[in-house]
Structure formats: structure tokens, C-alpha cells
Automatic annotation (TrEMBL):
Its EC number is 4.1.2.25. This is dihydroneopterin aldolase. One of its GO terms (cellular component) is cytoplasm. Belongs to the DHNA family. It comes from Penicillium angulare. Pfam families: FolB (PF02152). Residues 218-325 form the Dihydroneopterin aldolase/epimerase domain. GO terms for molecular function: dihydroneopterin aldolase activity. Pathway: Cofactor biosynthesis; tetrahydrofolate biosynthesis; 2-amino-4-hydroxy-6-hydroxymethyl-7,8-dihydropteridine diphosphate from 7,8-dihydroneopterin triphosphate: step 3/4. Keywords: Folate biosynthesis, Lyase. One of its GO terms (biological process) is folic acid biosynthetic process. The lineage of its organism: Eukaryota, Fungi, Dikarya, Ascomycota, Pezizomycotina. It is an enzyme of class 4 (lyase). It catalyses: 7,8-dihydroneopterin = 6-hydroxymethyl-7,8-dihydropterin + glycolaldehyde.
Length: 338
């Protein structure tokens, strides 16, 4: 039986796909979750984006900057949009009034979240700015091409050379965004990290185009705990440092992402506190114990847990085990109960 088609059409990538990147953009957020849970406190945020488009061939062939993506303009637009949208989640121009999943649905609760309070909203503002600039640039190139098609300049009568082939086109656009909020969590040394991939998608006839969030990922790295862990006699004498990382990934704009956003602060604290109270012989058992906390106690659908021991082997910086477990796994396996 044929699979039902998605209500949103995503164009195939063009044969030549080029990228513009802005790396480690400093985007101070007017308000964002912070380690001490104080509301409305400005917080640091580092963003990186990669805008994929078709293509830089014309700009390279003619050495003409007007045929390229202006990344200086992109940076200025990001700064402005973050400031303007931070306190205006209900504005009709807010990007999350339009961003949808591949199934054509959207997370209604995100419409009331200010930039910084929900990393998905911040990343949406970044992606919207990049895709919007791609649209503007492609429109400008089309206007130039229309003028150049005239055999003579209407003012001077001098012939004008046609622009190079393969100009920038707006039909396909893809923006990958990475965010890092280093001060979002007290017990995680590397804070909260988020990644999203947004593309132009086309709805049914006459319904227009909208940004589609294809995939999302959340990471919490560097949860430092201290527990008794190991089978060797010397490892049973006292607690050793254990570094825990949690990763969540899946399709964009679905309910699982909202669960992560709603629980990650309390969940990180619970993992750190409960691990500190444990004693295990194997890293596998500890990792499974952590996965149970994240999925069963906090309702997350699936998690990848990495547990590392910095002190296990003298000439190895860290050794560890990574597992992926789901709620469904614990419903059918009686493991890691404490």
C-alpha cells in the first residue's frame, strides 16, 4: 500500500548547492532561562548558521558582489530581529506564527514564548532572517536580469552585458542553526545546546510557501556527578567523577520537543542529584538508570545517554558508554529500578 503523501512539498536540492556561514555569533538575549531560575535576566547565547542555496556560480563568474548573499546584512538583520521579537511573541511578524512541521502542524504553545525562553523560537528567528534575505537577494537578481535583457540602456543607448548564468534562486532554501546557551543550567558545565534544520516548504495549491522545521536536536553536556562506580576494589572505596551527556533528536515542530523544553532544567537537576546517591558496578547500568529518569520520570519519548569516567584509565582522558533508550523500552523491560 502506498504511503500517504505529506501535505507539505519540499523541493529537491538543486544540482549546485552553496553555503553562506556565520559562525559563533554573539546574540545576547534580553531574557532567557538561567541557572538560578530568576525570570527576565539577560543571558549569553552563541549562534551559528549555515544557509544553503543555489548558487554562487554567477557571483564567482562575474566577480560581482550584487549577485551574492550579503552576510554583513544578514548579521545586522539577526541583531535587529532578536531585539525586536524578544518582547513581541504575539506580533503577526513573529516567525513561529508560520513555521510548521513536515506534517503541516505547528506548536501553538511556541507562539506565546519570547525569544530566549524557548530555544526553538530563537532559532526560528535566525532561520527566518536567513531565508528572508535569500528571498530578497533572489528578487534583486531577477530585477537585474530583467533590466539586462533590454538590448540597450534606455538612458545612454549603450549595450549592457547580460549577467552570468546560474543566478541565485529562491525556490530552494535550507538553514541549519546551532544555538548554545552556556549559562542555562547550574549542573551542566556546557549548558544547553540546540540545533534545527529549516527549509522552504510548499503547501497545497494556492496556500503558499512557509518555513518547515525538518529536524531538531537538544543537547545537555557536562553534567558532573560523583558516585561509586566500578568493579575494581579501589573503585569501591570512594566516589569518582562521572560526566553525563543527554541528547534528544527527532522531526521538528512536534510534541517531543515541547516536552524537552518544559522539563530540561528540572530533569538535569534530578539526574545530577540521583546519580550522586547511587552505587553501580557497570557504566551500562548507570546509563540505563539515567535513561529511565529522563523518559519515565519526565515523560521524554527517547534519549541518548553518554556516561564517561575521566579517572578510569591513566592515559585516556575519558572512557564511557553511550546508549539510546525510549519510554517503550522501559514499559517492556524491568531494568534500572532503584
Amino acid at each position: 500500500m502506498a504511503q500517504p503523501s505529506s501535505p507539505v512539498h519540499i523541493p529537491q536540492p538543486p544540482p549546485v548547492l552553496d553555503n553562506v556561514q556565520l559562525r559563533d555569533i554573539q546574540l545576547p538575549l534580553p531574557a532567557a532561562p538561567e541557572a538560578w531560575h530568576r525570570p527576565d535576566k539577560p543571558q549569553p547565547c552563541t549562534a551559528t548558521l549555515k544557509l544553503s542555496y543555489s548558487s554562487a556560480i554567477a557571483s564567482a563568474a562575474t566577480d560581482d558582489v550584487s549577485l551574492s548573499i550579503d552576510y554583513g546584512k544578514l548579521f545586522r538583520r539577526l541583531e535587529t530581529d532578536i531585539k525586536e521579537m524578544a518582547h513581541k511573541p504575539s506580533s503577526p511578524d513573529h516567525p513561529h506564527h508560520n513555521m510548521i512541521s513536515l506534517e503541516g502542524t505547528r506548536r501553538e504553545e511556541m507562539k506565546i514564548s519570547a525569544a530566549g525562553q524557548d530555544p526553538r523560537v530563537t532559532a526560528g528567528i535566525v532561520a527566518n532572517a536567513a531565508l528572508g534575505l535569500l528571498d530578497e537577494t533572489a528578487a534583486g537578481v531577477r530585477r537585474m536580469a530583467h533590466v539586462h535583457q533590454s538590448p540597450r540602456n534606455s538612458f545612454s543607448g549603450v549595450g549592457v552585458d547580460a549577467p552570468a548564468a546560474y543566478p541565485i534562486e529562491a525556490e530552494y532554501g535550507r538553514c541549519e542553526v546551532w544555538l548554545h546557551l552556556p549559562k542555562a543550567l547550574l549542573r551542566a558545565e556546557e549548558g544547553l545546546k540546540y540545533r534545527s534544520v529549516t527549509v522552504w516548504g510548499y503547501k497545497a495549491e494556492n496556500e503558499g510557501r512557509c518555513p518547515v522545521v525538518l529536524e531538531e536536536e537538544f543537547r545537555i553536556d557536562g553534567i558532573r556527578c560523583y558516585c561509586v562506580l566500578g568493579v575494581n576494589s579501589h573503585e569501591r572505596v570512594e566516589k569518582q567523577a562521572v560526566i553525563v551527556s543527554l541528547a534528544f533528536s527527532g522531526p521538528g515542530q512536534l510534541a517531543w520537543g515541547s516536552t524537552v523544553v518544559d522539563t530540561y532544567q528540572a530533569m538535569t537537576r534530578a539526574v545530577a542529584e540521583k546519580v550522586d546517591e547511587t552505587t553501580f558496578q557497570t557504566v551500562e547500568a548507570l546509563a540505563t538508570f539515567i535513561a529511565r529518569i529522563v523518559t519515565v520520570d519526565f515523560g521524554n519519548e527517547r534519549v541518548t545517554v553518554l556516561v564517561e569516567k575521566p579517572s578510569a584509565i591513566a592515559f585516556v582522558q575519558r572512557s564511557g558508554v553511550e546508549i539510546t533508550r525510549s519510554q517503550a523500552f522501559f514499559e517492556s523491560h524491568e531494568v534500572a529500578r532503584r
